[in-house]
Design a protein that fits this description.
The structure holds two protein chains of two kinds. Chain A is mostly helical. Chain A is built from six helices and three strands, in the order H-H-E-E-H-E-H-H-H. Chain B is globular, with a radius of gyration of 19 Å.
Chain lengths: ~170, ~350
């Protein structure tokens, strides 16, 4: 399924140019410097710190089509991350730039791979598109959360290459 | 072993088998091993592209690595299955092939490679007599192969019908009826029309028939073959029943009906279910836990109901992909995980 998507994307690119030739680029959010260890009275304060940590892992992932980060394009925002460190759970909701974005599964895969490589192995990760922002939302979500499909896709060298290209800026 | 109706049973970890360098997807106990002086043998298959064979040592009662089958599959080995005679092992891989192996001394030799699927093969299953093999794939099809003399395998039918990736195939324990479950949320039942090699879908268990509302990952039958349990990404497991006596007596096909849904027990996808000969259903899920269910003895007359017998939280450090009860020894369970390990458990009285 993902292999088919790549071929479609390549063909589409050759014929009609970029799917979203004029993405909206948002002003970058100022990065809050992390302060040293803080004594926390409120246990919920721990979650918001972890939310930023998750965001820091993924904000610089490059969009597959444009030389902008997912943060630049507001594909992901800090608020769209739900973390429960005690239960080792995180859910990232992302917003594709256009409703028919065929890059949605690639973006979702990039998010999943980056978090897999960055978080402790005890973490359970759910990735989904923001409700109402994609034409085939249920289908995209199902693929992104099928572990076996993700594993098989990541054995495809072309797709892995594409993902690695998108992830490179986020490792710096 | 204590009676199943007692509530004081739990799984005790006997051994952790390490060696695989990637997640362990599937397990299969050799059906003729584990009793009468034949030490128990377990096969495990992994994302590391190998299959490992573990054997129980009669002297120490612990399992050791007997063999590693490598250098044939070029991608993840997703599932493995022994023939009923215990002589052959079939392995299904993301490389789109299914390989058949035979033990020769301490090694395993590849007898045949079955090709045909367009992409990843997800599951392989032998029928009760060992004359037929079924495989399924992300290409949405199921292939039925006939085992011929001279280690030849001929494809006798390609079954189309599922609209998505087929996750598992399993033959009925006594009849030549094939069951499959899929990413399309359904379970399909396939039977042959007479003896004509004309296989077709005789029943589909959909959401509308009290079926699952998301991907169905696994199927297992009880010992008598009149009930089956299925597990799903919808976080439930479902029990189904059929009047199997009708089928066995040749009165034609008996449809499967939903009997019971167990929901609220699992927090994440249930990847595997397996029904023991003694009637205990075990489940392995993405919340790292193994759960055991038994029939509820306080039958209120509405048909069989099931209850949770025991829950082993953090059975593994990551997702549990497969659970399999031992072939002969009662109360013996193997589990495999994304944490790259296989664990051996024994059901015993709670301490």
């Amino acid at each position: 399924m993902l292999k088919k998507l790549i071929y479609l994307i390549l063909i589409e690119k050759m014929v009609v140019g970029l799917i979203n030739a004029n993405p909206v680029v948002y002003e970058k959010k100022e990065r809050r410097p992390r302060t040293g260890p803080v004594v926390l009275e409120d246990e919920y304060a721990v979650e918001s710190i972890d939310q930023l940590e998750i965001f820091d892992h993924i904000r610089d992932i490059k969009d597959p089509e444009h030389p902008y980060s997912l943060e630049d394009l507001k594909v992901i925002t800090e608020d769209a991350i739900e973390v429960d460190d005690k239960r080792s759970y995180v859910r990232v909701t992302f917003t594709p730039t256009v409703e028919h974005c065929s890059m949605a599964t690639v973006i979702g895969l990039c998010l999943r791979v980056k978090l897999m490589r960055s978080l402790p192995s005890r973490y359970k990760v759910d990735i989904r598109v923001a409700p109402g922002t994609h034409a085939t939302e249920a289908a995209v979500n199902k693929q992104l959360n099928d572990k076996e499909r993700v594993a098989a896709a990541l054995e495809n060298p072309n797709l892995v290459g594409m993902v690695d290209d998108c992830l490179a800026p986020s490792f710096e | 072993m204590a009676s199943v109706s007692e509530d004081n049973l739990e799984l005790q970890e006997i051994q952790k088998l390490e060696g695989h360098t990637d997640r362990v997807w599937g397990l299969a106990w050799n059906p003729t091993s584990g009793a009468d002086g034949v030490p128990a043998v377990l096969a495990s298959c992994s994302g590391d592209k190998t299959v490992k064979i573990w054997q129980k040592s009669p002297s120490t009662s612990s399992f050791h690595l007997k063999a590693t089958i490598e250098e044939t599959h070029t991608r993840t080995v997703r599932s493995c299955s022994w023939s009923p005679s215990g002589k052959l092992l079939a392995t299904a891989s993301f490389d789109a092939t299914t390989a058949i192996w035979e033990q020769v001394g301490d090694d395993f030799e590849c007898l045949a490679t079955l090709e045909g699927h367009e992409n990843e093969v997800k599951s392989v299953s032998w029928n009760a007599s060992g004359s037929l093999l079924a495989t399924c794939s992300r290409d949405k099809s199921i292939w039925i192969w006939e085992a011929l003399p001279g280690n030849e395998f001929d494809c006798v039918s390609v079954l189309q019908g599922h609209t998505q990736d087929v996750k598992m195939v399993l033959w009925h324990p006594s009849e030549d009826i094939l069951f499959s479950c899929s990413y399309d949320n359904t379970i399909k039942v396939w039977a042959e029309d007479g003896d004509s090699d004309d296989w077709h879908c005789v029943q589909t268990l959909k959401e509308a028939n009290n079926g699952h509302s998301s991907t169905v990952w696994s199927i297992s039958f009880n010992a008598t073959g009149d009930k089956m349990v299925t597990s799903s990404d919808d976080l439930s497991i479902k029990v189904w029943g059929a009047d199997i006596v009708r089928v066995q007596s040749g009165e034609g096909y008996a449809p499967w009906k939903h009997l019971c849904t167990l929901s609220g027990y699992h927090d994440r996808t249930v990847f595997s279910v397996h029904w023991s000969r003694e009637g205990i259903i075990s489940s392995g899920a993405a919340d790292d836990a193994i759960r055991l269910f038994v029939e509820n003895q306080d039958d209120l007359g509405d048909g069989p109901m099931y209850r949770l017998l025991s829950k082993k939280e953090k059975a593994h450090e990551q997702d549990v992909n497969c659970v399999q009860w031992g072939s002969k020894e009662s109360g013996l369970l193997a589990s495999s995980s994304d944490d790259c390990s296989v664990k051996i458990w024994k059901l015993g009285p709670r301490h």
